Amino acid sequence: MSHTAHIPSHRKPRQRASKSALRAGVAGGVLSTIAVAGAAGPAQAEPVTQTIEMPTITAGLSTAVAASAQATQQVALDLEAQAHEDAAAESAAKKAKKAKAEAVRKAEAEAKKEAEAAAKAKAEAEERTERASRTAERTTLSASGSSSGDSASASAPSSSSSNATGSAAAIVAFAKSQVGDAYVSGGTGPNAWDCSGLVQAAYRTVGIDLPRVSQSQSTAGTQVSLDNLQPGDILYWGGAGSAYHVAIYVGDGEFVGAQNSSTGTVQRSMDYDRPTGAVRVL
Question: What's the confidence (pLDDT) of residue 53?
Answer without folding.
Answer: 58
